[in-house]
Amino acid sequence: MILISTGWIISIIITVVLIGAIIALYIVGNNMQKKQMEQREQINAASQAATLFIIDKKIMPMKDAGLPKSVMDQAPKRYQKAKLPIVKAKVGPQIVTLICDEGIYDDVPQHGEVKAMLSGIYITSVKVLHKSTKKMQQQEAENAPKRKKSFREKMLRKQAEYQKQLDYEIAAKKDKEEAKKKKADEKKKRDREKKITV
After folding, report:
1. I want to staple 47 with a disulfide (CB 3.0 to 4.6 A). Which of 53, 113, 117, 196 is the partner?
2. Residue 40 burial (C-beta neighbours within 10 Å; 0-12, 13-18, 19+)
3. pTM score, two decimals?
4. Whole-number Å distance between alpha carbons of 158 and 148
5. 129: Cβ contacts below 8 Å, ≥ 6 apart
6. To the nearest whole number, what is the mean pLDDT of the chain?
7. Among residues of the chain, what percentage have pLDDT more than 90?
8. Rounded to an integer, what distance in angstroms lies between the CA atom of residue 160 and that of residue 152?
9. Tell me, what's the pLDDT at 141?
């Protein structure tokens, strides 16, 4: 009978537990990514184009943002204290409070007109309309004092990169499905033509 020292037994157990944890994290990560892609597709499907004049933008707690009561009632309690990127904008004659996607928050000008995609009160994308606003944004960024970015800002930057990658993957998947459908339709059409000629 081979005797194994307790040190080896402990290291083997730790290795097995670590491998199990890595596999579990991989599975959970994949499931979360699939859910996020589905949610993103639903948001994109419900989005409408609108022209907004941005009055102010801040990162503040949801309860202090002045969002509609129906939104606050639907939000879980833990999210009501969480900080969100909030944008006050003029839509036509109305001034409304909107929630901005954290990935595009930096692209929203402080004062300026933008073409935005809105899904309810959620801004999913923005495009600055006037060149002067873009130049002003670039000058503000250049003239702003250089400071060390906070952990939150670094994470927002990474999230924006991942969001762009996710949007690209969704678009690629959609294009692939459309190409597959088109190919299947063409095959059906050719099969029908063969039957007619025979």
Report:
1. 117
2. middle
3. 0.56
4. 16
5. 51, 112, 113, 114, 115
6. 80
7. 8
8. 12
9. 57
Which tokens hold the place of 105? Answer: 């928050």
92-130 residue pLDDT tens: 888 888 888 877 887 788 888 888 888 888 888 888 776
Alpha-carbon distance 86 to 76, whole Å? 18
User: What value does the mean pLDDT take over residues 157-179?
Assistant: 80
- In angstroms, the CA 32 to CA 76 distance is 19
- Give residue for tokens 């923005």: 126
Q: What is the distance between the alpha carbons of residues 6 and 83, in angstroms, rounded to a whole number?
A: 49
CA 170, chain centre distance (Å): 12
109 vs 89: CA distance, rounded Å: 11
Using DSSP bridges, classify how beta strands 94-100 and 48-61 pair: parallel, antiparallel or unpaired: unpaired
